[in-house]
Amino acid sequence: MRTGKVIRETKETSIDLTISLDGRGVSDIDTGIGFFDHMLNLFAAHGRMDLVVGCNGDINVDGHHSVEDIGIALGEAVKQALGDKKGINRYGTFYLPMDETLVMVSLDISGRPFLVYDAGGPMAPMIGNYDTELTEEFLRAFAFNAGITLHVKVMYGTNSHHKVEAIFKALGHALRTAVKIDPEAADEIPSTKGML
């Protein structure tokens, strides 16, 4: 089982996070931000990754520190779980429809972190106690700490809940594809450079 565990302690957040890339989609999430808990549960379920996240953050200020720091910890844990990256597919792309919304997520476990994020227009400022601007902050923190090139585009849609939910589901599916081991190349690094 490819697993990663990160404990991150700052003056703003205390995070304990564990991920198994070869799980069944079981999760136990408590961030203090209900909608974000829901999104991480969906990410794990659709990615078929087991994920445990506990976060005690300064949500009395707002959710920014908690969401961004969880992105950092998740990225670090995924990078740890991938190890030498031998045999992985490396690339993953997924289109996910949710009612009137269509989202595309495409990623490369390249070792070259980058984020392109297109929310497809304005969103409602808040969904429950979740600030929708934090979606981009989470994705950037995750991509840069995992060493992933990540492209996220809302192709179209009007409902902010559907847009954000489709992003997290599609991210789970795309990452699942990218981390899967190719049995025909299980001992190979998927790069002509010989390293990722």
TrEMBL record:
Its EC number is 4.2.1.19. One of its GO terms (cellular component) is cytoplasm. Coiled coil: none annotated. Its main location: cytoplasm. Keywords: Amino-acid biosynthesis, Cytoplasm, Histidine biosynthesis, Lyase. Pfam families: IGPD. It comes from the Bacteria. Signal peptide: none annotated. The keyword Cytoplasm applies. InterPro entries: IGPD_sf (IPR038494), ImidazoleglycerolP_deHydtase (IPR000807), ImidazoleglycerP_deHydtase_CS (IPR020565), Ribosomal_Su5_D2-typ_SF (IPR020568). GO terms for molecular function: imidazoleglycerol-phosphate dehydratase activity. GO terms for biological process: L-histidine biosynthetic process. HAMAP family: HisB. NCBIfam families: PRK00951.1-2, PRK00951.1-5, PRK00951.2-1, PRK00951.2-4. This is Imidazoleglycerol-phosphate dehydratase. The gene is hisB.
